[in-house]
Amino acid sequence: MLKKNNFSKKTRKGAVLKVSREHYLRDDIHCRLHGCTKCQQTEPCLEPGTVLVPDTNAVLHQLDVLEHPSVKNVVLTTTVLDEVKHRSLAAYQRIRGISSDAAKRFYVFSNEHSKDTHVTAEEGESPNDRNDRAIRRAAAHYKEHAETCPEEFAVILLTNDAENLRRARNEGLAAYSVHEWAKRFGPSPDLVDLLATISDAVETAICKEDETTVFEAHLSPAEVQGGLKAGKLVQGTLRISRENTQEAFVKPRDDPEHPVFVPGNLMNRAVDGDLVALQILPESQWQTPSGIIERPEGTHLVMDGTQDAEGELEDMQERTQRTGQVVGIVRRRWRPYCGILAANSNTASPNLFLFTAKEATLPPIRFRSQQPDKLVGQQIVLAVDGWPTNSKYPIGHLVRVLGPIGDVNTETEVVLLEHAVPFEPFSKAVLDCLPDATWLAAEQDLSRREDLRHLEVCSIDPPGCTDIDDALHLRDLPNGHFEVGVHIADVSHFIKPNTALDQEAAKRGTTVYLSNRRIDMVPGLLSSNLCSLRGGEERFAFSCIWEMTDQADIISTRFCKSIIRSRAALEYSEAQARIDDETDQTTLTDSIRRLNALAKIVKRRRIEAGALMLASPEVRFRIDTETHDPVDVQMKQLHDTNSLVEEFMLLANVSSAREIHKQFPTCAVLRRHPAPPPSNFEPLLKAAEAAGVTLSTTSSKELAVSLDMAQPEGQPYMNTLLRILATRCMLPAQYFCSGTVPQTEFGHYGLASPIYTHFTSPIRRYADLLVHRLLAACIGADPTYPDLLNKDKIASICDNLNFRNRQAQYAARSSLELHTCLFFKKRTTHEEAYIIRVRKNAIAVLVPAYGLEGRVYFDAADGQAPELSYDENKMALTVTKDDQHINLRVFDKVKVQVQVDSSDPQREQMLVRLVEPSLPGVTVQSTNTDAAASPKKSKKPAKMLQNKSSK
């Protein structure tokens, strides 16, 4: 049935256009009610009982309710889904995910294409009113069909829109607000706690406490846009200091080199990550960051890492700075937060409690719960609904309970949730894309591949690695040159574009390595079996093969799809033992030795070109296989073979980047590392100057040379400390589409390479998979497809990959923090440490033995506060107590006590105290008793989970 819809609309310039649209209506769209006599359907979806028809606002704001296992038999109209998709893509993807679960019995009803339910906009009717009418018509349609069923159905329209609710009831429909339905008819008492607060009026109604804090109202969106256009306001992302949550800064979009300081009293309900509008205060009201480090309320280890993608500052400079106040929120960055029920959180209102988030920058959140006893001692997840002007705290609602505080599995789930790491099991649709576990190569596939099974190929990886994605070979050529090959798992053979498996891998972006587990990007059948280049097994590979001289000069480069059979899957230490064993003259060992010699030449040339050799403390925990607790800690051991693999992987990545950019100049997936702005180097230069060391940061080569020369006599660890601080000056590397960035900005600062990409790890990085597809098109092995050549699509994928990669790094650090706390829970140790930062009330120290950084505080929290004298220029702190004093300077070697503070069992944290130099009443007493220095080895088997991210 064809239906024409004619209407007029006004353009932005005021012109009136007549629009005519044709709409095809069908009479075969079934209701899917079990037993319906009006529909000739073979697969009923909706079972007898209550059938819910939610409107758009109910879906947008009450997803946690709809997601609850007890909520079933839900009809989602296409009117609602289209509106949700238009207003929130994240909510749309989430509701589609819920509806794909067969057990939930959610049915998408195409009401807009059914001749029985389609409605045409009436004259003068707004689009919102027309859509509400369409949803009511769909609910009425279901009511009519339910009356013909032999078994009983109750059709309920869910809406929180007062006018839609009134009209529905006038039309004879059973209609309720989501809150009323959950409280009166909800299938589970848990639903009441999941209800989101959706208006300031409701928030005010539940906040009956006397509020002493009143915030200024935010400007309207129109006022914000007007102020930005007029230059009266500036816009940027609010970043709260990691050292003091009462201080924040904003890098204006039009002037990122000059951040604006925002003290806590001027944040006006903005939280970390919000895109805000700022009003710059008169210069007479500009303020100076305090330089005071807050004591953390929870676990707080500062592990090594570069700045985030926003270029977050390590700390604000201690001088008067341009100061602003938040006057509007352009875009909120609220997300579900993990945390606990705050101690003594009962308020004057019944069933109203406070939630303390794990995210230290977030204030407490007020929420309702009908069953608080179930929340005590548990990690829970809360969503924020709003923050009214008359409330001291944001308002939220419970999402779910995770498990007991301190339980390693619960805390690991918190790490994954806090860093938005997708870790749910792979769906049936994804698993259906996999080949059979007994897969064997077909002759057709073999005929299109180069047979390299005769080569002496081997892999070299960390201990316990099962996702082996790279292998190498070297052989002599008749002309006296070498053939060197890097062979990478051909994951693209198994993951075809636009399949459910491909879409899931693109969403996850990367494999995440935690201290006790690995979250795979692709199912284990591929990552640990069919794609893993295991020793002695035939595997498909994508090979990069060079002809090289004995001085590592590249004569030619070629790529091919191949089949290989690895002779051995070696660990770094095993490969090193082969090199060092002069009696081992086998062909494989000889090739490894010569690869090692070539790698040293390649590395020397990289360094001469200006590549940086930075440092970071890296430790690995040995995990008990039964208790999953850490039983030992080890520093990462580096061998020549680590560098051997790294150099050839870097070389393969550079060769791949050149090839795909040559063939696809506008849609190549590349990776760049921007040069840090000069301001980023200020903390490093200040620390080096205080230690009497001169560094040059005018270029990566100048920095590399000056770091090599920074070898003060009698201070052997100084160079490592400088390199660690230099690492923290770097900006993060980023994936990008070549057609969206000028070629002058392609360069990789850290590697001193004009072009670079990732080709060598497609099992664990989606970017590498895209590069494989581009390379396959370059050599004619596989065809292209539209999305691969669409630079906007590739740019969007790269944005997601950058986010996922950053979150994976943060999750890995948080997991290391968690296991460090678990390791020290029953241990106290005295260890050597080095001061790497000095502040007005604390010093930050690095403990090399455990690769952790902690803070030693000198304030009233240690008892009677000592007198502190801080010299910012010399980066020194003098601590005086009872006419005695100690001087602490950056890079000084000290001794500290490391233990876990369990005074609050719900919020354990690492506690670092100064032992030497000693000052009575300030430092702790030195002792030779050390329970952690020689930890007892567990009699139970243990395993090491190795992070491959360094490869």
UniProtKB/TrEMBL annotation:
Q: Where is the PIN domain?
A: 50-166
Q: Which domain of life is it from?
A: Eukaryota
Region Disordered, annotated ranges: 922-951
Which range is the signal sequence, renumbered to this chain? none
Q: Which locations, inside or outside the cell, does it occupy?
A: Cytoplasm; Nucleus
List the GO molecular function terms. Answer: 3'-5'-RNA exonuclease activity; endonuclease activity; enzyme binding; RNA binding
Record's protein name: Ribosomal RNA-processing protein 44
The organism encoding this protein is Monosiga brevicollis (Choanoflagellate)
